[in-house]
Amino acid sequence: MHVHILGIGGTFMAGVALLARAAGHRVTGSDAGLYPPMSTQLADAGIQVMEGYDPAHLQPAPDQVVIGNAMTRGNPAVEYVLDAGLRYASGPQWLAENVLESRWVLAVAGTHGKTTTSSMLAHILQYAGLAPGYLIGGIAADLGQSACMGESDFFVVEADEYDTAFFDKRSKFVHYRPRTLILNNLEFDHADIFDDLEAIKRQFHHLVRTVPSTGQIICNAEDAELADVIERGCWTPTLGFGGDGAWQAEPLAADGRRLRIRLAGEIVGELCWSLTGAHNQANALAAMAAARHVGVTPAVAIEALTVFKGVKRRMELRGSPNGIRVFDDFAHHPTAITSTLEGVRAAAEADSEAGRILAVFEPRSNTMRRGVHAQTLAASFAAADQVFLYDAGLDWDARAVFADRGHTLVSEDDLDALVEAVADSAQAGDTVIVMSNGGFGGIHGKLLAALEARAPS
């Protein structure tokens, strides 16, 4: 069967492409403006990707067109699919019908931490010898790719609340029907899709309704919004993590790199690992709890996380020119920004040779560009010594929002000027964290080159 994917460069759709290829189908795709790591992953898999959305890409007609949720009416390829009467499906529908059916689905949902927690969970199951399948919106160093069919009944999926397709406005995750469900957290996001937090909570409750009574829901015990969702009706046993939940982590080091893990009050082990921050502590607890539901002991899960290498674009070290460490991070919501920077700050305070923390931020998401989080954004950078903000195309005044930060903010609407400003400021020992949920105009390579060019004489 020939499967053609519209929007193949998205993190989810690239994973669908790998799964379709693994299922024995011929896979092609169309997209515009691809960037790593998904563009690299598709190229490595030998999947043909055509630039743009020319209807000619669909001639001769494929057996099925899988349409990504970024595709809209008016897109020439979409219009051709409809006019020609081609067989089509959304990515989540294709996944449910061709991969997830009859498998034990472990789904990870929440506003933050889905990719990291999904990667942790898949890594734990793989380490334990369970050979899981998975589809994750990122590439974990331990897994090597974002999607895999696996060899067992277990399948880990990052369960996104974003809408499914232009013809299916339900959240993606309602298609997955998990037996094990992680609910990490819940805040307002995706202002282009949801009117308010209540609309998102309604979708989360739809997800809760799909989990069987023989399954398990693993829920953040400190999240009041998730508690409200569960209180609306839940027919599945729930298990909490964090707060007064059954699973708890006690930091034994300020940066969170040593944790004492407890289950139902009993110490089940000590985790020594490379990740920092309270958000990663919560992610680890959720992943261990889900793994235990399918038979992995806490001791084995802790052992697996000890060697967990992390996920691309989640505090990924891109280089250290002249003693300046440059990280790439996906944080794009005030809560995620706060957690990431506080984790870095704790690690820096434990290192006597650490310099300043420089945060370089692109408000790229629709929610950010609209200014939905503008009033809480400046405070989320409190742990940074200096903030460099790319303010092109915003519906709000960045300088006004960050006014109380004074000289610690540099705001530029020209990318090259922003790179130069960061390079002029950075010194040996500093940590530069580039934060964006997109390609950020290739800033990582430009910044590394600019820092390298400033080599001390």
UniProtKB/TrEMBL annotation:
This protein's name: UDP-N-acetylmuramate--L-alanyl-gamma-D-glutamyl-meso-2,6-diaminoheptandioate ligase
Residues that, per the record, bind ATP: 110-116
Catalytic activity reported: UDP-N-acetyl-alpha-D-muramate + L-alanyl-gamma-D-glutamyl-meso-2,6-diaminopimelate + ATP = UDP-N-acetyl-alpha-D-muramoyl-L-alanyl-gamma-D-glutamyl-meso-2,6-diaminopimelate + ADP + phosphate + H(+)
EC number(s) stated in the UniProt entry for this protein: 6.3.2.45
Mur ligase N-terminal catalytic domain location: 2-99
Keywords from the UniProt entry: ATP-binding, Cell cycle, Cell division, Cell shape, Cell wall biogenesis/degradation, Ligase, Magnesium, Nucleotide-binding, Peptidoglycan synthesis
Family membership: Belongs to the MurCDEF family. Mpl subfamily.
Record pathway: Cell wall biogenesis; peptidoglycan recycling
